Amino acid sequence: xxxxxxxxxxxxxxxxxxxxxxxxxxxxxxxxxxxxxxxxxxxxxxxxxxxxxxxxxxxxxxxxxxxxxxxxxxxxxxxxxxxxxxxxxxxxxxxxxxxxxxxxxxx
Length: 107
Fold this sequence. Notes:
The protein is mainly alpha-helical. It contains one helix and no strands.
């Protein structure tokens, strides 16, 4: 079987050079959408290509932005835990000092 190309592996990747998909005679009437004109399709295709090329960059930028925010939240959580630990330590030292002062006064 000699075929010029298949849907998955076309002969060329340029859509304008590919064979148009016209309905065959064996298909029932109304099962295939009629052909449409491609005026201005080149501009749309190029814009889409530019947008598609910029999508990974935008996705990477958004990912890095999210990672930075996550790291900042992590740092804030670590600072909060450290501050609470230091506060508990200071409270213990204050209680010890009060106890020591009370013991000194009682003697």
